[in-house]
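Box 3.1 A note on notation
Throughout this textbook, protein chains are presented in two layers. The first layer is the amino acid sequence; the second is a token string describing backbone geometry. Keep the layers aligned when reading.
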Amino acid sequence: MASYHLNANIVSRGNGGSITAVAAYISGEKLRDNYDGKIHDRSYRQDVAYKEILLPFAAPQEFLDRQTLLDALNVSERRSDSQMARTIKIALPNELSLDEHIALTKEFVLENFINTSMCADIAIHEGLLDESRKPISIEAVHERKDNPHAHIILPFRTIGENGFHRTKTQTRYMNSPSFLVLWRKEWARLQNREFEKRGLEVRVSHESYAARGINREPTKHIGAAAMALELRGIRTERGDEYRETMERNIEREITRERVRERERTFERLR
């Protein structure tokens, strides 16, 4: 069954963030940060299934080169506390193929960002389960599945024929919670459209469990560092929180099933 996930964050120098480090991570490349001189090498990654830089029509074509784009962005951002970019991570449905993942991700980015003169660096990670890396101590309630997902980097500065614009006035709206809700809703709509086209009954929702009247506690994102430890069999605080939440949800489901069974029994005896 498809699951919904869209998480947005900000890359800020003020919080110690590096746009080059993030780009190297999602693309699986070795990149140089011309702001602090550091080299970020993620060329060892084997899970990057697809990557592409998307530009508005008027943007310089040399920005299709990831290093060139990052160099220009770092030059345009002079402040030591600059907010560099918005990052979005989205879960991709297992029901669709890689080509369909690519098309759907690009449609989402083009409609919501590129059409407003923004550029984007996107990458799709396979998220394949490695059954050889045991023990894994965060088994989900349901049978574990592959976790294909897309990373999207969206520099705050819009872009034109001369490169990045001098101000960010056009994209300050991106920090409004209302726009995050719109993006979440749009990502759910696009997925459900594809499910319907293929005759699949599965659907996803951007709304919370509470908003949908579902008595289920949402799990918190474990994070890459904690996940790496968990995959090595080392328990973490975040992993424990995840397991405790899942146990509570199992208890809720057991209780609901008992209630449903009593109701079915009552109906048979009437």
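The mean pLDDT is 83. The domain at 6-206 is CATH 3.30.930.30 (BirA Bifunctional Protein; domain 2).
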